[in-house]
Structures are given as structure tokens and as C-alpha cells.
Amino acid sequence: MEAANPSGDLSAEMEVDAFRRLFPLRFFDRHLVESIRPDGRPLGRARDTTLALGAVASADGSALAKIGSTTMLAAIKLEVMTPATESPDEGSIAIDFHMPPICSPMVRPGRPAEAAPVISKQLSDTILSSGVINLKELCLISGKAAWMAYLYPEERNNMNLKVDKLWNFMITIVDIYCLDADGALFDAALLSAIAAFSHLEIPVVSLDEDGRVVILSQDEGLKTSNEPVNAEKRKLTLSDIPFSLTCILYKNYILADPTAEEESVMETLITVVLDSSYQLVSLYKPGGSVLAYTSALQDCIALTRHRVQELKKILDEAMSEMEVD
Amino acid sequence: MVGLSLGEKHFIQGGIAQDLRSDARKRLTYRPIYVETGVIPQANGSAAVKMGATEVIASVKAELGKPTSLHPDKGKVAIFVDCSPTAAPAFEGRGGEELSAELSTSLQQCLLGGKSGAGAGIDLSSLSVVEGKICWDLYIDCLVVSTDGNLLDALGAAIKAALSNTGIPRVQVAAGATGDEQPEVDISDEEFLQFDTSGVPVIITLTQVGKHYIVDATAEEESQMSSAISVSVNRHGRICGMTKRGGAGLDPSVILDMISVAKFVSEQLIIKLDSEISAAEAREEE
Amino acid sequence: MSGKGGSAPHPTTYSPSPQNQKRPKSLIFKDNVDWVRPDGRGFQHCRPAFLRTGAVNAASGSAYAEFGNTKVIVSVFGPRESKKAQMYSDIGRLNCNVSYTTFATPVRGQGADHKEFSSVLHKALEGAIILESFPKTTVDVFALVLESGGSDLPVVISCASLALADAGIRMYDLVTSVSVSCLGKNLVIDPIFEEENCQDGSLIIACMPSRNEVTQLTITGEWSTPKIHEAMQLCLDACAKLGMVMRSCLKETASSQE
């Protein structure tokens, strides 16, 4: 694993370790000249990525994403809401990114990580602006016909109907927990959130006597007096899924998918988000000491294009595995 | 923190081994307990308990509330402990918070029974007014005024005394409320129901020093403990809750032995506490 | 359970509850009818345990535990520098923190720290760790409950001692923890969420199985002495078995590293 370690015996390895800690920049320089990174990757390659859907049973949709050792657990809980007055036919999405103390030695209880709110905002901007989720689909009773069919045959008083109509939308609350922080947190968080959305199912619901929405379990749906108001469980249609790649700009090098060590040594990051038809969703370069030429940006976008293909395949595989189970 | 020299430590440990403690007590003897009731006039019930230099105050405030959907026929009780900065320099600022939280949790475990409400020292069903709609919520607030060891036992005794001092106003429920409506109530200013405290357990903390265990340890003795357990025992000799207060591990057989010692001590403590409480009530009425 | 729920963060929304919760559940556990546990186990059977060390690379040591639906990750950091404000100490310090994810419980929670569990975890572990082996420094034990499926605290304690072993912190023995719930006349071991919610009493033991020492014991509810005896024996036996599972998990990790 140590390219700068010609002998390989234990004492020499210790020296490399010391060199790595004392002169991190020189250590990386020595590697980069050889076009290789300390973990043996070429500069433009991302780490191995895995996805597992349905990791949390207590959530309505969940996914565990792993990029190298960076691990993210995203889980979605559905709650019933009244739509906002400015968009009366839409549900809504709330996204929260958490970095609990278990994920990194830098985070301590009671002192939240600085990065968490930044990534949280970036995630919700990306997911909302990409239009991957059609907020109109978060309506509980889909289609006017179903709504009408329910309206008349049931004997309910007007008051309840008002309540029903108001509480007709779902808010999807996405909580993403970083379980192991080893760089490229945004990429892993976005991947886990998207995967959780693809796992999410909107349950069959009914209304109880007080006009509150209750979930019907499958076997129960048939025998209760309460008629289900939507016919069957359904998945959301994900159009134009956003995928991202974070790169480090250092001197003339571009390092894709950095580890935590690389991020701490070389500070200039650039995050590109493309959707599945390769349209640019967002591009994020939060300052840093290296200024980027447009050619460097284009290189980053090209790397991201390649990465999107990989991630698409990984997501498809995870989803088809889920269906087989 | 108690700063003790090596000689003092040996003296305390040696005394306990010979069943003659620094203040001439035996291992299983409590310090004299002094109870005063009705110390806070605006509360529904209150009491101050002194054990040596340890002094605590408990007050009970009753408010009408809504029962939880899980237990519609029961009231709710909340216990909070606050450590006054006057009691110890360590309690200044946020210093007392951790101890306060620990004492509150231990008291809740010892007095409030299991999750279903069974085995609670405080009879929660007597707090129900209208099933599913209205119940009494008891807020028990305790204050540690001065500390010289054995806080948990003193707090337990103060709560027991404060509860027997508590009068809950009689409530008239207006008839005619149906369905989901919240019935109207009339709280009496004159008629009070005495709270039944016969089931409230006492808490006994056994502190292990060397090979022996002692009750009612002073702060100096507590600094020498290897471990301690607190057992709450009711009048019928049944265990109502128990916690271990950190420290070294204990052999299971030792724990069982400690429980039986605690049961034995509890009988005397309950009698002692009952007579102190009734004496205090008599004084208050004069 | 305090500290877990509280008021909803989105006051204008609510989680639709499954309809079957309207039926009072406690009826199922009555003494006079024969009942089986919701997951079909015998009263004295623990859930199958899955344990793995090295779940978090960023930590000095870590472990993941899955007992039925209860899923927990514990990371151990250190020994590292104590907080600046703390005084000199010739023995090491132990700092414990337990928190829940917002989606751990059926109703979305706050994801806040669980103070009560943090302090019990500290008490359960401090008797087993050789604090003298890391003077002046602090070992941090952080636990995150990913999913709460009942018996959370015992699982956290067992998982934490495994993570400490993975971090190479010196201990007298592993700490294993098991709880029993008292439901009417019956004692059920390793209760799930539904059983804990209507229990009449509970007993949680944390012990060092090889040394036969109890590091932490908590009892709630009303118990007779013989019942305590029975429950303790049940827990201690289960603790011993869990200890063997944990040992073999550590051995597996060690042999795979060679």
C-alpha cells in the first residue's frame, strides 16, 4: 500500500508513517508525481461503492450507502400535512443531515459538527431543484376520480371532509446519519437519500372516526369497515436522478472522491451534481486556495459523467436485488 | 469532594470493620431523622427532612391534566430534583445537573413502578378524576439544601412525608358533557382529600466499604465506598425498585444478601419515619 | 421512555398510526390466557444476536450489534487528551454518550442525547475498565441507536464493551447485559419494544461473566425476593451465553486480521 516504501520491513514502515504525519503535503506530492494515491487508486477513480436498501425497518424507506469507508444511513418517515397556501396541490420534503459523535473523532456530543448544516442545506437545494421527486405525487388520494369516489358513497359529515381534504398530503422527512466519516460526505449522503427515495413506499391509508389518517396493514385492509382511500401501496417515480462527485483541486491535479485525510491536507474542493441525463444540476466550489480554470471544471464534469454511469448501475442493481427478495 | 488523609481513611474503614463508626453509630443505624411538614404554604404538600447535616425539602403541587392514552384511568407523577449551590461548591453553575438528573431518575425508578403502572409506590389510579379525560398531575419538586451523604434516602423520606402532608382538592364534575368534549370541573377550595401514602416505599442505600455495608453513610464514608445499591422497600417487605450506584462489580450472592439486609432495615425505618411524620403533622396543627 | 419523544418537531404534521394500535395491547399478556410472544419466542429465549467489530473506521474501536430489530453502533475514541477544563487525574476518565436516531422509534423523535442511558452505560462499564492503564487521558464511548426494537440499553452496554475490546482498552472482563420484563406472573427475557411498553416491572443486569460480578443492576416495579432471585439467575445465565458469543466474535476478527 505504501508506494514510497521500497523495503517493506516494519521499521521502514514506521518511518513512512511518521513521514506521512509530519510532512503530509510532501508525502502526497511524492505519490501524485507517480499518478497514484496513497490507497493505490489512480487520481480519477472513485472508491468502491455499495448500496443496501431497506436497512431500517422502523422507517418507510431507507438505504445504507458506502463509498470506501464513508457510510451513510438515510431513512424516510412519512407524516401527514396540510399543504402550504401557495402550493395547495403539493406535498413537501424536509431533509436533515446529522453527524453523530460516533462518526468521527472531530465530533463531540453537545458540539455539533460545522459541516452538518452546510451539507444539509446543499442536499435539500440539490434534491428540490433537480425535480427528482414530483411533489404532486405526495398526495395521498391520487387522481380526482378516487377522491370523488370516496366523497359520495361514504356517510360522513362535512366537518370531517374538510379535515380529510386538508390532511391529504405527505411530508417526507429524510434523516441522513453519517455513521463513518471518511471524506466525500456530500456524495455519499446524496446517494443514500436518493436510494432511500427509491425504496420508499406510500402505504395504504384510511380515515378513522376522527378524520385522522391511519395506516392499514395488508391483511387488515380487507376486513375493516374503513375503506382504504388509496388503492395500493405505490412507489414514487424518480425522474432525472441527481448524482454527484466531489473532486480535490491541488496544483494541476484533480483527485476524485477524496478521503478524509486528503480533504484535510488539500483544501480546495469542487462538487459537481449531474442528473441521469447528464444535465448540470449544481456546481459547488466553496472558496479554497486553488483557483480553477474552466478547463479544470470541464475535467471535473467529465469525471462526474463517468461516475454517474457507475452510480446509475449500482442503484439499478440494488433496486433489482430488492425486488428479487 | 472530601479530602481525607491516609490516616483518616484507615480510621473510617477500621471503624466500620469493628461496627463502631466515627460518629459512634453501628453499621445499620441511621442518624436521627427530623421531619417538618408544611414548610411551603403555597404547595399542596411539603416537607423538610434532616438526617445529620443532610437536609432536603420536597414539595408536591397538584394540577389538573389529561391522562395518557396508554393509561386513561391513571394520573401522572413527575419527580424533579434540584441541587442548590448553597449545598456544595461543586453544585455551582451547571455542576449539580448531573447529580440532579441521576437522583431524579433513581427516585422515579424507586417510586413509580413499572411501565404498565403496576407496583407503583404512589397509587396512580387514585389520581383519576374522569377516566380518559381529566386526572391529577403531581409535580414533586425536591431541593437539596445541604449535603452530608445519603441524599437518596433523605429525598425518599421527604417525598413520603410531603405526600402524607398533601391534600388534593375535591373536584365536582359537571354532568352533561358527552363525547369528545372536555367536561367542566369545579375545584373545591375547602374540601381536601387526604392522599393515601401507606404504599409509598422507603429507600435504603447500602454502601459497601471494605467487606461490610453500612446504611446512611456520611459524605466522608461515601468517599470510601467501593459500590452502593439503593433498594426501595414497601410496608409489605416487597422490593419496589433498585439501582446500583456505579463502582466496582458485586457478586450476585452479595447483592441478594444486601437486599435481605435492606428489607430488615426498612421495617425499622418505616416505623421511625411514620412516627416522625405524625409528630410533625401534630406540631403543624397546633 | 423519557428523552426520546417529546413534542413533534413539525407541529403542523403527524405520523399516521397503524390502525391495530387502537386495540389495548396489554390484554394480550394477561395471566389467565395462554399467550405467545409477538415474535414467537419462548419466554426464556433471547433473540438471535448479530455482532461485528470494526464498524466505523474513523474510530479507535467500534462494534455493531443487532438483536432482532434493535440495531446499535458504538464507537470508542481514545485514550485521548482530556478536556482542558478538567483537573489532573492519575487514573483515566470514561465518558459515555448514548443518542437515538430520529427514525429509531415508530413516531419520529428528536434524535436527542439520552442522558439517563448515558449515565447507566457509564456505571455499567466503569467497574470493568482498568482506568489506571491510561492516566490523564479520556476514553470516549459513543453509542447511536439506529433502530429501537426493545432492550435497547442492554444491547448498548454489551456492544460498548465489545467496541472497547476492539479499541484495545484494557478491561478485567467483557461486560454483557440482559434484561427481563415481568408481565403478570411471567418473566420474559430480552423483551421487545411492545413487551417493554406494558411491562409490570423490569430487571436489567450488566455483569462480567468470567468474574461472576454484577457491575450494574436496575429493578423497577414491585418484586418479591424469590422472583428477583429467579430473574437474576435467568439474566446471569443469558449473560454468560452472550459473553461466549462476544468472545467468538472477537476471536473471528483477530484471526481474520492475521
From TrEMBL, chain A:
**Keyword annotations of the record:** Cytoplasm, Exosome, Nucleus, RNA-binding, rRNA processing
User: What are the recorded Gene Ontology BP terms?
Assistant: exonucleolytic trimming to generate mature 3'-end of 5.8S rRNA from tricistronic rRNA transcript (SSU-rRNA, 5.8S rRNA, LSU-rRNA); nuclear mRNA surveillance; nuclear polyadenylation-dependent rRNA catabolic process; rRNA catabolic process; TRAMP-dependent tRNA surveillance pathway; U1 snRNA 3'-end processing; U4 snRNA 3'-end processing; U5 snRNA 3'-end processing
Q: Please name one Pfam family that this protein belongs to.
A: RNase_PH_C
Taxonomically, which superkingdom?
Answer: Eukaryota
Q: Which GO terms describe its molecular function?
A: mRNA 3'-UTR AU-rich region binding
Q: Where in the cell is it found?
A: Cytoplasm; Nucleus, Nucleolus
UniProt cross-references to InterPro entries, sorted A to Z = ExoRNase_PH_dom1, ExoRNase_PH_dom2, ExoRNase_PH_dom2_sf, Exosome_comp_Rrp42_subfam, PNPase/RNase_PH_dom_sf, Ribosomal_Su5_D2-typ_SF, Rrp43
| Broad class of the protein's primary localization | cytoplasm
Q: Which GO terms describe its cellular component?
A: cytoplasmic exosome (RNase complex); nuclear exosome (RNase complex); nucleolus
Tell me where in this chain the Exoribonuclease phosphorolytic domain is found.
46-203, 240-292
Name the family the entry cites.
Belongs to the RNase PH family.
Q: Which PANTHER family match?
A: EXOSOME COMPLEX COMPONENT RRP43, EXOSOME COMPLEX EXONUCLEASE RIBOSOMAL RNA PROCESSING PROTEIN
What is this protein's record name? Ribosomal RNA-processing protein 43
From TrEMBL, chain B:
InterPro entries noted in UniProt: ExoRNase_PH_dom1, ExoRNase_PH_dom2, ExoRNase_PH_dom2_sf, Exosome_comp_Rrp42_subfam, PNPase/RNase_PH_dom_sf, Ribosomal_Su5_D2-typ_SF
What's the domain of life for this entry?
A: Eukaryota
Mind listing the UniProt keywords for this protein, alphabetically? Cytoplasm, Exosome
Can you cite a GO biological process for this protein?
Answer: U5 snRNA 3'-end processing
| Cellular component GO terms held in the UniProt record | cytoplasmic exosome (RNase complex); nuclear exosome (RNase complex); nucleolus
Query: Is Cytoplasm set as a keyword in this record?
Result: yes
Please give the Gene Ontology molecular function terms for this protein: mRNA 3'-UTR AU-rich region binding
Question: Which residue range or ranges hold the Exoribonuclease phosphorolytic domain?
Answer: 30-169, 199-263
SUPFAM superfamilies linked to this entry: Ribonuclease PH domain 2-like, Ribosomal protein S5 domain 2-like
Task: Write out the annotated subcellular location.
Answer: Cytoplasm; Nucleus, Nucleolus
Which residue ranges run through the membrane? none
- Into which family does the record put it? Belongs to the RNase PH family.
Name listed for the protein in its UniProt record? Ribosomal RNA-processing protein 42
Whose protein is this, by species? Dillenia turbinata
From TrEMBL, chain C:
Primary site of residence: cytoplasm
Gene3D superfamilies given in the database record: GHMP Kinase, N-terminal domain (3.30.230.70)
User: SUPFAM superfamilies, alphabetically?
Assistant: Ribonuclease PH domain 2-like (SSF55666), Ribosomal protein S5 domain 2-like (SSF54211)
List locations, semicolon-separated. Cytoplasm; Nucleus
A GO MF term:
RNA binding
**Taking every annotated instance into account, which residue ranges of this chain make up the domain Exoribonuclease phosphorolytic?**
46-169, 173-234
Domain of life according to the entry:
Eukaryota
- Regions of biased composition (Polar residues) lie at 10-21
Q: What is this protein's name? A: Exoribonuclease, phosphorolytic domain 2
